[in-house]
Amino acid sequence: MNADSIIITGTGAVSSIGETLAQTWDSLLLKRCGIQEIKNWDASNLGCQIAAEVINFDQKRAGNFQQLKRLDKSAMLAIAAAEEAISQSGILNSNIASNRIGVFWASGNGGIQTYDAGMIYYAQHPARKAFSPFFQSNVLVDTAGARISQRFHLKGPNITTVSACASGNSALLTAMLYIKSGLCDAAIVGGSEAAVTPSVIGGFSAMKALSLNNENPNLACRPFSATRDGFVVGEGSAAMVLERLENASKRNFTPKAILTGASNANDAGHITGADETGKGAADCINLALKYANLNAEEIDAYSAHGTSTKQGDLSEYNSLKFCFSDYLKYLPIVASKSMTGHLLGASSALEAVLSIEMLYQQKIIPNLEFSADVDMKEPELFLPQAGIEMHLKHIMNHASGFGGQHATSIFSAINA
Prior knowledge:
Blueprint: E1 6-15, H1 21-29, E2 36-37, E3 50-51, H2 65-68, H3 73-89, E4 101-106, H4 112-124, H5 135-139, H6 143-152, E5 158-161, H7 167-181, E6 186-193, H8 198-206, E7 236-244, H9 245-249, E8 257-266, H10 279-292, E9 301-303, H11 310-324, E10 333-334, H12 337-340, H13 347-361, E11 363-364, E12 388-389, E13 394-401, E14 405-412
Parallel strand pairs: 4-5, 4-6, 9-10, 9-13
Antiparallel strand pairs: 1-7, 1-8, 2-3, 6-7, 8-14, 11-12, 13-14
Helix pairs in contact: 3-6, 7-13, 10-11
């Protein structure tokens, strides 16, 4: 670690299993699942009727009553997670000017709840004034990132990355490059999604991408399992504060982890189907390893994309065989979507925060119980069924998404 190292000084999260990162972490260790029957609207006419919603969220964390009327839920969740990370980091009390702190956010759907509600109301009441003056600003994908800048008076670069379910790691890569190049000194990085809506659930259901295990929601998302039948949409947000070590050292602050590598690649193939050979994901993983100057055998744990889809999990498994070879059977793999649901564009942001927390706590998150899958020779995968305390130096977090997108991040312990 040197003065130019990109460190993480604060983290935050809101999920279906916790309104803060600490609550989410504790729930994961206890193997609590946030997947249940959809509560906020009637999904009984759809194949998939379950999701991992953020229920009873304290909206006051995102602003006062007047402000809340102008915010989509995705922006509310973003502000809450960002505030937790910013408060932990002390970045606003540092000597870094506000125009040198950027916001690099991720989302795949933006204010889709506002969009769905507006269009449904318009369809039902075409003769009435249907749209709010805040409709357009709320549905834009970059609104959550803009609201974070507005709330915390951050005047540096503000960029929202959209690379489907790889967006969170793509935001990390972008922020890292901006800081490394000197275009900013620190960054709030993360992602948010509140996409449990009729259009999203209905659209994915029509593609047969979602689990139909409505009767057993706690067992619906089973990454790498023989009985997997699709993913489950989740809501939530996660945020990190990135800055150079030399800046944090001036305020005598102990970082949580180091961002040592990141990468992005594309299959250049099917628009929704993953390349079952895993070659594109493997290229992405190897590029991140090269950037971090690490060998595959130096990775102590792997935070999986692990969607629980037949094709997606097989593709990821094959990419892991390419990259880790015989070492794969010893590599602890964490598939947290089984409990949090799939946060779509924000998924790898949450999984990055969890990777950082695993390094900070020196503990591996457990997985739910999964059955063996013959087509992937699943016994070769090490999916811990209980939390494991172990000496962790480097953790890899990988994500893939529609459009052939892949993005990888690597975090290292401070004393690695």
